Structures
1.
Amino acid sequence: MRHHPCSSILSFPPLLLLFAVLFSFVSSTPQNALYEGSFLAVEDKSGILTSPDKFFTCGFYPVGINAFCFSIWYTNTANGTVVWMANRDRAVNGHGSKISLLKNGLMVLTDLDGTSVWSTNTTGTNVQKLELLNSGNLILTDPQGNILWQSFDSPTDTLLPNQAFTKNTNLISAKGEGMYSSGYFRFFFDNDNALKLIYNGPEIDSLYWPNPDNTLYVNGRTNYNSTRIALFDDMGRFLSSDQLSFSASDMGIGIRRRLVMDYDGNLRLYSLDESTMSWVVSWEALPEQCSVHGLCGKNGICVYTPKPQCSCPPGYEMTDPQDWNKGCKPLFNQSCNQTQEVRFLMLPQTQFYGYDLIYQSSVSFNTCMNLCLESCYCQAFIYGLAGDGQCYGKDALFNGYRSPNFPYSAYLKLPKSLNTSVYSASNGSDPTCGSIRTETPLGSYVYTQSGTTTWVYLYSFALAIGAIEVFFASFGWWFLFRRHGVPTSVEDGYQAIASQFRKFTYKELKKATNRFKDELGRGSSGVVYKGVLSDNRVVAVKKLGDIVQGEEEFWAEVTTFGRINHMNLVRIWGFCSGSVHRLLVYEYAENGSLDRHLFPDVSKSIKSPFLQWEDRFRIALGTAKGLAYLHHECLEWVIHCDMKPENILLDSEFEPKIADFGLSKLSQRGGAGSEFSRIRGTKGYMAPEWALNLPITAKVDVYSFGVVLLEIVKGVRLSNWVLVDDAVEMTGLTMLLREVKMTIGNEEKFCVEDVVDPQLKGKFNRKQATTMVKIGISCVKEDRNKRPTMDAVVQALLECKDDTMKMV
Ligand SMILES: *[C@@H]1O[C@H](CO)[C@@H](O)[C@H](O)[C@H]1NC(C)=O
Ligand SMILES: *[C@@H]1O[C@H](CO)[C@@H](O)[C@H](O)[C@H]1NC(C)=O
Ligand SMILES: *[C@@H]1O[C@H](CO)[C@@H](O)[C@H](O)[C@H]1NC(C)=O
Ligand SMILES: *[C@@H]1O[C@H](CO)[C@@H](O)[C@H](O)[C@H]1NC(C)=O
Ligand SMILES: *[C@@H]1O[C@H](CO)[C@@H](O)[C@H](O)[C@H]1NC(C)=O
Ligand SMILES: *[C@@H]1O[C@H](CO)[C@@H](O)[C@H](O)[C@H]1NC(C)=O
Ligand SMILES: *[C@@H]1O[C@H](CO)[C@@H](O)[C@H](O)[C@H]1NC(C)=O
């Protein structure tokens, strides 16, 4: 705080004057109050107000280079957390700006040039002081202690415990991550007395919470109480007059919490973890982030990668590469030109909410498509593959999102002449993951002071929803149009996918495998035969055992895996599906599976080549890369669930290729969805959570990979039982862990030579072997949260990859 240098100093009561003089000497002590006639200057960092318990601070908060907003924030949280701002859409200069308590009762925020940027509505009142309370409420009071103005009445995006949320208040999101200016998402009491979330965008307004498809009653709310008041208490319980109630997952007293309308459109309750002074989410309104409306603008689609990201469909591009709110613009003319020939592009599991031009139920796919063809305003239609025949024709594409749970697909109407294959030809080679382009944050807006300007304000902007654009071109496929552009059946669509992946006839495969003569192996899922296709490609054909899936379901799943393409994953060339037979056609791997090389069967006459150290390291790294790809990079997040040496195939160069991943069920990303009930896997490689009946996550694969990695180093089956000291039977893994765990942390005691396969006769890279053992042990931790991710494993292996082959 600073005392005013001229005008009002004489009107100060003597005691205050004394204080004021004192403060200019001991100005490093933060203050509890600001008095009438004085001001707080932006330069004066020591003059900021704090609440008596020091938890909250009020003052000028930096929002950009030389740009500040008068704000309240948590004093000690990591990087500060702003809870309130006076005018967040207008920052002030870092010099000469101030907040003043005027004698006429007003509290005013002024910029360098004296312009009033914000003020209270307290003209003519007998203002005495401004105080920051322990609750985080900033109050302006008169000498009698009456509150004339309080920050709790005008929240920005945050509601604090015991702060009443009323018909006059709103929470409005910030524009983007790390940004402070007002965005488009709003939490408010609607006219029907219910609390809602709405997107108030530049082009559309759209309610998205509670679920707009349901009635208020079905959503558990009521509309008869017009009080319109809501509050959350110190326990973390939120109660509203419309019957909405929820509690923090860590409900209880003594925890700091805040309810925030986040920049991504979700409403979240955060609890403070005081050990790290960081915030953890203890409740959120929308578990599926992409169901927030307006996230990706017009024509944009929210996809999980697995983080929610915005993308443009084929035939569209970002309108403004810096702003997803502006959505995507078509690369073709959307005129109602009947002479223009059109086709439809399928976007699986994609929804565009609202703007229904056509709605029909119980109609066939062709009827739905024709309805959309006939109306030139129809830009796309949504139809359920599940077969209840719901048909929605859209005249505008908003609120697009792709969800693995969504039983419908969107069919985009595009001009026939438009060549969308250019997308898949652009950077990024992988068809499943699309090409991912990362753009750097940009956009700074320079505001120059007029007149004898000295200061320039620079506001930095971060990109709203991240800037990764995933092209869809490769997950849709063409419907090749025959007569008047009408596909004869969905099956034609499948056949039209590039020759890379296709449907085979049973006869073709019977011929290729010479009537299923040359058996390569048997697994839990079926028998594998060697075959040669008519184009001389050598393939492995797997005859699936039990047929439980419906044909359509089988297609859908297989097609997904057909689009997965990574050098360390066995390529699926196609499938055959009839009433009796289900077969998969795979790439053939010359050197068979890893187990044959690691644990050769001495009884077998054919000897598999012994694996030297370089091969072992390459196999470990390649396998890790393949798994990391399945876990982290694929759009269809896949958990393998049955990692073992039998499922690691080796090609002619001994490059590993993971097999059988196609048969684990597609996992739904995140939260409650990441569970499945069926037990899969092989004893000895299965993570403990299978037995404990815990939700299955990608960490089960990390566990299995750890076992395989240790087996690669040691050259023996660790899942086998061994007798120790002629007394105790334990698995090889348990024994290894017992031996190694005691010494692994100690560089002097740990002797990697004791672990490495003796058959290598000491020809191995010590650093690589040590890294592999360490990774292997961290992967088989009982607590899955302590296991690394596959990305981290790849990183760690890459770090010792280029070590020149220093043999020890
Ligand atoms: C906090 O600030 C540091 C350094 O300025 C930065 O590296 C870190 O990411 C920030 N953390 C958060 C949560 O913003
Ligand atoms: C100031 O505004 C608040 C909220 O809009 C209102 O409740 C209050 O009566 C106003 N005060 C004066 C003095 O106008
Ligand atoms: C309306 O809600 C308020 C606050 O929850 C409550 O005090 C009041 O009794 C309710 N009125 C009716 C008619 O239920
Ligand atoms: C769209 O139409 C305008 C004029 O009508 C033309 O100049 C433009 O090239 C067309 N764009 C495309 C992509 O066909
Ligand atoms: C309609 O499309 C045809 C073929 O694309 C084109 O030749 C014609 O100029 C278009 N007409 C209008 C009015 O855009
Ligand atoms: C589409 O573009 C790709 C790449 O530019 C090209 O190879 C292909 O022949 C084009 N297809 C058509 C139908 O024009
Ligand atoms: C691919 O990316 C590289 C660099 O990342 C760039 O130089 C090149 O122009 C890109 N090619 C295409 C077709 O976008």
2.
Amino acid sequence: MLACRQRALAEIDLEAIRHNVRRLMRDLPDGAVHCAVVKANGYGHGAVPVARAALEAGSTWLGVAAVAEAEELRAAGLTAPILIFAPMTGAELEAAVATGADVVVWSAPFLAAARRLGARVHVKFNSGMCRLGVTGEEVRELCAGAARDGLLIGLMSHFATADEADTAFFETQLRRFTVLAGELEAVYPGLLCHTANSAATLRGPRAHFGMVRTGIAMYGLAPSNDDPFKNDLRPAMKLCSYVAGVRTVAPGDSVGYGRRFIADAPTRIGIVPIGYADGVRRLLTNRGDVLVAGRRCRITGTISMDQLTVRLPDDWGAPGDEVVFFGAAGDGVEGRPGEAWTGETGTRSDAADVPRILCEEVAQLLQTINYEVACDVAPRVVRRYRGAGPAA
Ligand SMILES: *Cc1c(COP(=O)(O)O)cnc(C)c1O
């Protein structure tokens, strides 16, 4: 019975990724393309399987932050154009060119190095983020230099506040980019202009230009950390474990390091073999919830590196039960496949009323964003994929 169970399992639904890509591409203007952002191991979901699923669903570009990430995609046999977003050392630039990836340019010395190596470049305009990118005047010079060698591919920028309710600064950045893109597209026909992240993409076509670069929404997570289902996005990852043991503690007994839970009555405690080294942050001690066989239970006692403990109701929770940290209950852990769920809201279903903890809820408790919760899922957590497409 226990043979197939994983102590810490991230189950990734590739059909959800494909659905989200199609959803994000739905409103793109004719001819505009989708860049699937798979940096940081696909926001924890696994870069190569996610990239494959996105390409199957219609993406034509891949975006990463590090040269090694581009190399991983190439080693897996993916031939789509790749853009590396982040700054690079000289050695990294050489590796980027060797792997056939495009690079981002925002300085004359870097452009000179890129030209020597024959790198395809996207010039970055600072429309207001003030991180990478330069002024319109400098952008014109860099574009002219890159175009001289036939290496100019794109003009890009990045939004600072596209996920916020107040759209004033988003509009300012959009206006600046629209003006410059219009000017440079006239000078360089075919120039690929792109500035939209997930949040800007969901705001509609005005920010789409020739390409959108979406990460978070492609994973079915909401850019503004609210409910992804409102935008018809489907969360792709579920992080789960199982009840490895149950004990009843007596009044006065404490559970775990630092005695941060002391029972005042006989209390059933479930032991779950997942901890902060798997990505369940220690800050969730006595605050976070999990779903034990579909029912919400509080993490109780200090989260340790490899284990945590949950408080179980008197009539719920047994060894072998699935424990979901985020994602939907059911179908997740081998040992109880497809078993009828009879929790607080009735019978189990595959519809939206299946018990679920959103990544966004965990992020809110941690005063961070869903991006960080997904990226926190550690390498030692086993990834299992479902919904794999036809073999390419
Ligand atoms: C990470 C990143 C994106 C994707 O942002 P999301 O908010 O996850 O959609 C787009 N563009 C650049 C330059 C990035 O670094």
